[in-house]
């Protein structure tokens, strides 16, 4: 479907909006655990009713890729924002993923052409312009920077690993495996650092929080992830990750529409550059 990349970008771009609604009411790892558990609650009955096949022989590869893409990436970004990392700067750091993926493309048997390298440069310049007026160094710490860099390396490695070792699998059972593995990894850290208990006493169940959680489960962790896996299956890793250049501009437009955040001429120029960059990368 020609519209699949655009639908993916629109849904994926709501991630920072969800953080704005959800983080005031729960610690980041606690929120992510509820999000991962919600995915299992939705998918397990569907998987059983539809008799979805298990990916025999590739479960450990699928689980490892899921830990990197889900637990590593999301935990890194959300924890960084929670301890003071500005959302604009975190978007810029994570926005380096297409460049890293392009450098590592030979590892998965892909070749990045000269036109695509130009597009990648255009894309990162566009992202920088979009988030330039949102970057603040107030409250910045080495811990928050380290968490964002960890998130960047995690999602880049996870995308390449999945492309190489388990690009094709049933999305229903594969997603269940990935989120179950992510729960196993994140749970001990939530108990140790966020004092998580069985009563979930550290969660405020407000309307905003519930709405953010439901959107995270249904739209982001099921809808967007299914689209991401489908794109990884049918396209080169560099082409897929270049779509993430469109996330900061799209998020900026959403923040302007929903919260009245400023959207400057510089940001508009950045959006144009990002679109041109992605077009250069994905054009056949």
Question: What do you see in this structure?
Answer:
InterPro entries: AA-Vitamin_Transporters, EamA_dom, EmrE-like. It is found in: Membrane. Residues 6-131, 145-282 form the EamA domain. This protein is mainly α and 284 residues long. It has a domain at 14-113 and 139-234. It is 74% helix and 0% strand. It has 13 helices and no strands. It has helices at 4-12, 15-22, 28-49, 59-82, 87-94, 97-104, 114-131, 142-165, 171-194, 207-234, 237-242, 247-259, 265-282. Helix 3 packs antiparallel against helix 9 (171-194), helix 3 (28-49) packs across helix 10 (207-234) and helix 4 (59-82) crosses helix 9.
Secondary-structure map with pairings?
Blueprint: H1 4-12, H2 15-22, H3 28-49, H4 59-82, H5 87-94, H6 97-104, H7 114-131, H8 142-165, H9 171-194, H10 207-234, H11 237-242, H12 247-259, H13 265-282
Summarize this structure briefly.
The protein is mainly α. It has helices at 4-12, 15-22, 28-49, 59-82, 87-94, 97-104, 114-131, 142-165, 171-194, 207-234, 237-242, 247-259, 265-282. The chain crosses the membrane at residues 32-50, 62-81, 87-105, 117-136, 142-161, 173-193, 205-231, 243-259, 265-282.
